[in-house]
Design a protein that fits this description.
The complex is a heterodimer. By secondary structure, chain A is an alpha+beta fold. Chain A is about 30% helix and about 25% strand. In chain B, a hairpin with a 2-residue loop joins β2 and β3. The chains are: A alpha+beta, B alpha+beta. Chains A and B meet through α17 of A and α2, α3, α4 and α5 of B.
Chain lengths: ~775, ~170
């Protein structure tokens, strides 16, 4: 706020040189020749490095990855072939960014353009060009997941509603792009990685493997991070910069530019559905089935995890037991996809909540009423879904009660009818969603049975200093979620102190902060995982302090309580944290036997996860926050403009440790999803050229586009999360679909059917022009 | 004066920033944002998009907000600038806008915040009593990806109210 934050680009690192990539201008092409001579000759250029230079020394990126990734190797630089627009082909290293950029212009790459694969459905047709010759097909992976009796449900249905749906590509595009400075110390053989990675610990092993060094050769430091949203989960650049730092003996600095970010970080999962819902005439949902084509882009760095992530909460808040998802992970010549806020959540909400709305319209049942008839009831909690998810409590009907208390649907319908008679198209949309957190790593076994990972873990350490202040450190990597504030609240609460007396280490530093190979910040895991680790560490520390104080007081530990920054015993006996810390560190003979010196505790929390139930199902999260979004719109059919009139969000993430921070997270998630529905769409032309390569074309939502969000919260404590608090930073995946449902509602008098998860003014104008009822309304 | 060093055309630039005069010889192609950040070490001003779309680089040039990523440092020669580092008083007392952001949880990752603050400075200088719509329009050139803008709008609204009431009760932070 005073300009004193420290982001990666803010630190001046002595001797650092600048790394600038030369990116592919083609979506699909063979690399015939790379002439670096002119670039290398420019004064100030240190080196120009190609994929060939790396291939002999950095080869193991794909090893250790689950299938099918093993056969689709990702390299830091393209090798022999480019597979998407913007793919890094060459890097220039120079004394300044400007010189590196000048030199990048001088690199002469000769390509042989190939037919690009852009449409994932066409990618599956015989005769399509192939993105990865090594697998000989564009279908990288497929698997059908069927639960209950789907065929029976569809046979018994009064009505089957079929839709093709498409959730487009978008990105949460953090305002700070990806960035790193890697230094190598030839004496200690340590790589110092100063970066804005969201979870460097998860990649430590793979990075080490790629470079053939010990995992302990890396010191990770993450300063302030300017937003992450999943997009700062990656490893290829760390491998590349580490390799360069070791080879050239200089710290390597890389600050991604915005075009590089939009073209070649990763995009959110794009899915095409051939979907159907089976319903009774009374609105009861009997089942859903869909072929789900995930357009993975050109490489599978983490994918196809986005597919199975949908199974963590496949039936969402509803009680139906029959569902089938036939996933196909398809390679195309586009930017790879990967985790983006509400990873796998918004994709599933798009499927289920769009289908429910379409079915409600055909059945002429009110969409809120239809949802109400199908909810899992509170008395069924904890509820096991057909996919094996175990919901940790909640009161789903209350969501709708609260929605109805805030938004008067009956009054709106009257206004809607009146407006329509004046040629104005108002609409309201609702969607419900779930946010599963954290992620059980065993979900990978649904993709690759030989992937032997399971569970999730996080570490915390807590210590009382000689001044009586508490210092806490955790393995999460904050990007603006207010971790320091929340940690201080949890610790103060656990140890009977005040948040102002708790210091939390800022950012993440692997030499200072405890961690596990699962550490980091993603999948809304902070509250559950860090909460669990802090609760464990504080419990250990509190019990130790009680034991020491009891020994000093000459009583049993049961007679001592920890409160108000003191240990209190019977008859007014009391000792302050500071004095206890002094004794535990300097006056050691006063400690009871078998007691370690110092007031410090370390704890590694392990989430209560079992193995998957079978190759298709299991419980892959601890907590399931849930919410409902209602969006009211006014659609101008002459211009296609959608005016947002009201945006309502009701949410239950269990115990809210800091309601203001929770609400801030909800605001951000709503904005991302409204943006994705109305403003933000990654677009490629038929040649695979990215046409949204800057913020001029990839139009993020601005303050003037949005209106005030009306947020409501209630708390039903989680039955399984350590503090009763669910993870909840992803807006339940509901606001995007609520917005689309609202536009669909507004345009329904025209007979328009929406299939997309995004509608631009141009899209709406086109839909209205070709609408079945257009001629009729023109006469009104 | 123009000189040439290592093929780079160089020029001396003199600017006053937050009341301090700086004189540096720089390559003529240096962007103002890079001059602030890397030549002078004033890293509170950020760079988020390279196309003057995101507003993270917003500073005040002669009391008007400009995007420093689309301006050359040499164009600012002789000018007076204000950056986020110059908002709080010398004793650390926060500007009412900073107080507003603090109290209303108007920032999460903080990357857009300096630019938002400078755009808001420009607004309240022009309009002492901005409506919600005025505020939303004034910061429409500044992108935030964390907050959905809601608490930023509230922060600027409360700061402008505070400024109007004249009871500047800055909070002191070390």
């Amino acid at each position: 706020m005073k300009g004193q934050g420290e982001y990666v680009d803010d630190r001046a690192i002595a001797g650092a040189v600048h790394v600038v990539p030369v990116r592919s201008i083609y979506a699909h092409a063979k690399i015939l020749n790379i002439d670096i001579s002119q670039a290398a000759a420019l004064p100030g250029v240190i080196a120009v490095v190609t994929g060939d230079d790396l291939a002999s020394e950095v080869l193991k990126v794909q090893a250790g990855l689950p299938m099918p990734n093993r056969d689709i190797a990702s390299f830091p630089l393209a090798h022999k072939k480019v597979r998407y627009f913007g793919e890094p082909v060459v890097v220039v290293i120079a004394e300044s960014v400007e010189i590196a950029e000048d030199a990048a212009q001088l690199v002469d790459i000769e390509y042989e353009p190939l037919r690009p694969v852009i449409d994932p459905k066409k990618a599956l047709e015989p005769g399509s060009a192939i993105v990865h010759d090594a697998i000989g097909t564009n279908l990288a992976w497929s698997k059908r997941f069927s639960y209950g009796d789907v065929a029976g449900a569809f046979a018994a249905a009064d009505r089957i509603v079929e839709r093709q749906l498409h959730l487009h590509r978008f990105t949460s595009a953090p305002l700070e792009t990806r960035a790193a400075v890697v230094s190598y110390n030839a004496r200690t053989k340590i790589f110092d990685v100063f970066s804005n990675l969201q979870n460097p610990e998860r990649y430590r092993y793979r990075i080490a493997w790629a470079l053939n060094v010990s995992p302990d050769a890396f010191h990770f430091e993450c300063p302030d991070i300017g937003g992450g949203f999943g997009i700062k989960l990656h490893m290829l650049w760390t491998i590349l910069l580490s390799f360069l730092a070791r080879r050239y003996g200089r710290p390597m600095k890389w600050i991604e530019d915005r075009t590089g970010h939009l073209a070649a970080s990763h995009h959110g999962n794009e899915v095409l559905y051939d979907a159907a819902i089976a319903v009774r005439n009374d609105g009861t949902i009997l089942g859903i089935r869909a072929r789900a084509i995930h357009d993975e882009g050109a490489y599978l760095e983490r994918e196809p995890k986005g597919t199975v992530n949908q199974l963590r909460h496949a039936t969402l808040t509803y009680a139906f037991r029959n569902i089938e998802l036939d996933f196909q992970a398809v390679m195309t010549n586009k930017c790879p996809t990967g985790p983006n806020r509400a990873y796998g959540k918004v994709q599933q909400v798009m499927l289920v909540e769009r289908l429910i709305d379409e079915a409600a319209r055909e059945l002429q049942i009110d969409p809120v009423e239809m949802r109400s008839r199908n909810l899992v009831q509170p008395e069924s909690m904890p509820y096991e879904t057909p996919t094996g998810a175990l919901y940790d409590g909640g009161d789903y009907p209350q969501l709708l009660d609260r929605v109805n208390a805030i938004f008067d649907f009956a009054a709106f319908r009257r206004r809607q009818v009146a407006a329509l008679s004046e040629g104005r198209y108002l609409g309201v949309g609702i969607a419900l969603g779930l946010e599963a957190s954290p992620s059980n790593t065993s979900i990978q076994q649904l993709i690759d049975p030989d992937d032997h990972r399971s569970g999730d873990s996080e570490a915390a350490s807590v210590r009382v200093g000689f001044d009586g202040l508490i210092v806490a450190a955790v393995g999460s990597v904050p990007q603006g979620q207010g971790h320091e504030t929340t940690v201080s609240q949890i610790v103060a609460d656990q140890l009977g102190s005040e948040p102002s007396r708790v210091t939390v280490t800022i950012g993440y530093d692997s030499y200072r902060d405890p961690s596990t190979p699962n550490s980091g910040t993603h999948a809304s895991r902070f509250t559950v995982m860090v909460g669990g680790a802090l609760e464990g560490a504080c419990t250990k520390l509190r019990e130790k302090m009680r034991r020491i104080a009891a020994h000093l007081f000459g009583v049993t530990a049961e007679a001592v309580v920890c409160e108000g920054g003191c240990l209190r015993g019977p008859n007014g006996a009391s000792i302050a944290f500071a004095e206890l810390a002094r004794i535990a560190s300097f006056d050691l003979s006063r400690l009871p036997d078998n007691t370690e010196a110092g007031l410090e505790a370390h704890y590694v929390y392990r989430a209560p996860f079992g193995q998957p139930r079978d190759a298709f199902s299991g419980n892959f999260s601890v907590s399931y926050a849930y919410g409902a979004a209602v969006v009211e719109v006014d659609v101008d059919i002459e211009t296609g403009r959608v005016r947002l009139e009201r945006i309502i969000n009701v949410h239950d993430c269990g115990v809210q440790i800091n309601p203001m921070i929770v609400e801030g997270q909800v605001h951000g998630a709503i904005a991302h999803q409204l943006g994705a529905a109305l403003f933000e769409r990654i677009e490629y032309d038929e040649e695979g050229q990215l046409t949204t390569a800057t913020f001029k074309d990839y139009r993020t939502a601005t303050a003037a586009d949005l209106c005030t969000f009306e947020c409501d919260h209630f708390e039903t404590p989680s039955l399984f999360a350590p503090l009763g608090a669910r993870g909840g930073g992803e807006g339940s995946g509901a606001p995007l679909v609520a917005t689309i449902n609202a536009v669909a509602d507004a345009l329904s008098p025209l007979g328009v059917v929406l299939v997309e998860g995004h509608v631009s003014p141009k899209d709406i104008w086109n839909l209205v022009q070709s609408a079945p009822a257009r001629a009729a309304t023109a006469l009104v | 004066m123009l000189t040439v060093t290592n093929n780079e055309a160089m020029r001396v630039v003199t600017v006053e920033i937050n009341g301090i005069t700086y004189e540096r010889e720089i390559p003529v192609r240096t962007l103002l944002v890079d001059f602030l950040r890397h030549t002078l070490g004033l890293t509170g001003t950020h760079s988020g998009c390279d196309t003057s779309s995101c507003g993270a680089c917003t500073v005040l040039l002669e009391e008007q907000c400009v995007k420093s990523c689309t301006m050359l440092a040499v164009q600012a020669d002789g000018a007076s600038l204000r950056t986020v580092e110059g908002l709080a008083a010398g004793d650390g007392t926060l500007h009412p806008l900073q107080v507003g952001f603090w109290e209303k949880h108007g920032l999460q990752c903080g990357f857009c915040t300096p630019g938002m603050l400078m755009a808001a400075m420009d607004l309240i200088a022009r309009n002492a009593d901005p409506s919600e719509i005025d505020i939303r329009r004034a910061i429409a050139g500044n992108i935030c990806r964390c907050t959905g803008y809601q608490n930023i709008v509230a922060a600027i609204g409360s700061a402008s109210q505070e400024l109007r009431s004249g009871t500047d009760r800055g909070v002191h932070h070390d």
